[in-house]
Amino acid sequence: MDIDIFKDILVPVIGGLGIFMLGLDFMANGIQALSVNRMRDFLAKAAGTPIKGVLAGTLITGVIQSSTAMSVMVVGLVNAGVIALRPAISVIMGANIGTTLGNGLIALPLGPLGLILAGISALVYCFANSEKIKNIALACMGFALIFYGLNLMTGGLRPLRNLPEVMSLLQTLKADSYLNLLKCVFIAAGVTAMIHSSSATIGIVMGLGAAGILDWTTAVAFSLGADLGTTVTSWMASLNLSKNAKRTAYAHISFNIIGVCITIPLFFVSIHVLGWAMQFFGGDPAVPVIVDGKETFPLVPVAVGLYSTFFNVFNTLLLFPFIGVFERVLSRVGHTDAEDAEDFSTPKFLDRKLASDFARAIPAVQQETARHLEAGAMFLDIARGSKKAPADPGEHYLATDILSRDIRSYTASLMKEDLPYEQLDLIASLIEEADFTAALTESMHQVARRVKRETFSNPAQAIVETALNKLDASLREILPTYGISGPQMPAGHVSFPEVEELRARTLALGPNAGAAERGTILALLGSIERAEILIRRIDAERKSVNRAGVVARASARRQDKQRPLGDTGLSPVPAE
């Protein structure tokens, strides 16, 4: 039988592969648009312990159907300080299990039904007015295109069996020995690294196996390589991020490499086990089924999906007890003394157990807000180039921003319907102070960034130093325990020029400073002016409510409620 290579092979294979990958993209985009923000928030809350991390990683990856997106999300959350390294490692383990659910779906024998399902979903997508319905239709369309693309690939690959040249080449890719097994694994890892999708690689392998081009053992070997190659994406995503984000990517890589290294010696034993297990899933995958007079192997995709699931579950169970070892080893990678500094992204005083005790929760919020203010003050250290200052202003600001969100969330959780008005008023005042503190920290971050980015001439540097000293002195009004070294000042009262005077001096620099320098100083003075307004606003907010009195009365009420019924001691009820 004559084979038209272009019409019978290239068109359906390339078209099917494109439709398959487009389907993966549509499905991931649709599901992520519907739920990725909720999933991110859920992950940040759920990944508190290694076991919860594995479960959360499995669940979320099973929903969004992209281990690549999941690993990139985890790396990003670690970079933001939302998740620590230890639970992030467990989430990555769970993500590897979750992605196998998608491989199982791909193995379903829906075939040509995918086209009509895609058509119906496309019509819904085009005519829907609701963004939510559009995203659901997009996910369904992607789901359907996966099957249709896989069906096209299988049909296009089938004629290759009649080309002796191709079959002789593919004979070299037969996992019949450990050397050939390694060759298959590395080829699949390379392909996956290039296309950034283990699901796409496994889909191609399923098509080759279903068409009879690859025997089922070799197809399974390729799926092992796909799990190895998918780690490249998380590594690439972490290149310009924090050290902990890089360590999360390294955990993903090392986890899969160790799993593959352990599985390869056991591969042929596991194939025998898989062959036995396949009797519960349809029979022997090596036995062809005649469809329209042509041989096909519909159970090969099932075997590949089953093995991929088994590999990731086995790998997780094997390495889960060593999460602590992973964390200790990876935490030493690229470790510097700066990492031993205080982590401002994690609250120090906010205890959820205190949330029901108003008298104890309020002082905790005040302590945490003061700590947030101290973190913001460190931007002056950064601007002055102190060796004790955080090395990266952006990373330090990110930590303070996370702390700010935690403070506001915790404080808002204290608002109960049965609280007296004065207590609600105090909580509102603390929320406002936290908001002003966050804005002040942002302004001080801008100050540090502008000073660090520009090289100033001596006359311009003198104005910058005066402006920083002015802000330093203003900050001490609301932060008496300010521990950062201040500028050298003579004894007695020292007054600083107003911002307007510093602006005039900047404009008068003339040829002594370039336009870029003067522009930077003027922007710097704007940030300092905003910072001083916020400092005065924080001071006024603290004085707007008698905080100590409200807390004292709340504490007295609590003690009164805790007094035993038999206690006849009389004490006056504090005035409201």
UniProtKB/TrEMBL annotation:
Residues 549-576 are annotated as: Disordered. It is found in: Cell membrane. One of its GO terms (cellular component) is plasma membrane. One of its GO terms (molecular function) is sodium:phosphate symporter activity. InterPro entries: Na/Pi_transpt. Signal peptide: none annotated. GO terms for biological process: sodium-dependent phosphate transport. It is a multi-pass membrane protein. The chain crosses the membrane at residues 12-31, 43-64, 70-89, 101-124, 136-160, 181-214, 253-278, 298-323. Keywords: Cell membrane, Membrane, Transmembrane, Transmembrane helix. Pfam families: Na_Pi_cotrans (PF02690). It comes from the Bacteria. Its main location: membrane. NCBIfam families: Na_Pi_symport. This is Na/Pi-cotransporter II-related protein. It comes from Mesorhizobium amorphae CCNWGS0123.
